[in-house]
Amino acid sequence: DRSIKIAPSILSADFADFGREIQAIEAEGADWVHIDVMDGHFVPNITFGPPAVAAFRRHVKTVMDVHVMIAPVDPFIDAFAKAGTDILTAHVEAGPHIHRTLQAIRGAGMKAGVALNPGTPAQSVAHLLDLTDLVCVMTVNPGFGGQKFIDMSAKVRELRAMIGDRPVHIEIDGGMDPTTAPLMAAAGADVLVAGSAVFRGGSVENPAPYGENIRAI
Ligand code: DX5
Ligand code: ZN
């Protein structure tokens, strides 16, 4: 579906070759580039921080969509803004003051996203929708690529109704592939993150599978 944006997650890219991986997925049709920041505390894995994100910015020509799985978030907001982040998405579970965090993200000049773990209800963002540009519905427990999809169709439908006519994206993150993606699009999602399903079968030397995979989702 052309109206659905695909945001490949570089969590499934070659970690020794991020610059060329980003160029390859954009050349093959990525709408946004999704960057997963993990701290080994909020989630049981560690990836990279603001200096790496600043380096990625030199290659991203589309939208740099940064998903922070870190706690706390607030001390790092300015660093992600300076790194050139377009959309900064923080978890509602990451601290007691998500409302303040979203205000600070917008205050730093970025678009503000809020992410929900699978166990977190749609209602947890009911009072945040005017502070938010994107709601990210996790369809895996965050921390790793390549996990099994957890169906959150009911949550997505509930969020779409709550959002009404506000200009808020619903992004799905985890287990998106040609079978699961249509379920989420039908429920009301408009941005799909995909890691393993985009990068499988390709490489920077042979990027054509990236494009085939993106178009298949
Ligand atoms: C998981 C990350 C996802 C991950 C998705 O914690 O937030 O963005 O890269 O990977 P796949 O598409 O392989 O489930
Ligand atoms: Zn993510």
Reconstruct the topology from this structure.
Blueprint: E1 5-8, H1 18-27, E2 33-38, H2 50-57, E3 64-69, H3 77-82, E4 87-91, H4 98-107, E5 111-116, E6 134-138, H5 153-163, E7 169-173, H6 181-187, E8 191-194, H7 196-199, H8 208-216
Parallel strand pairs: 1-8, 2-3, 3-4, 4-5, 5-6, 6-7, 7-8
The structure holds D-xylitol-5-phosphate and zinc ion (ZN).
D-xylitol-5-phosphate is lined by residues 9, 11-12, 34, 36, 67, 140, 142-143, 145-147, 173-176, 193-197.
GO biological process, one term: pentose catabolic process
Catalytic activity: D-ribulose 5-phosphate = D-xylulose 5-phosphate
Binding site for a divalent metal cation: 34, 36, 67, 173
Care to describe what's here?
The chain has an eight-stranded parallel β-sheet. α3 links the parallel β3 and β4. It starts with a strand and ends with a helix. The protein is an alpha/beta fold. The mean pLDDT is 98. It is 30% helix and 19% strand. The protein contains eight helices and eight strands, in the order βαβαβαβαββαβαβαα. The chain has a single domain, classed as TIM Barrel. The structure holds D-xylitol-5-phosphate and zinc ion. The site of zinc ion has 6 residues, from β2.
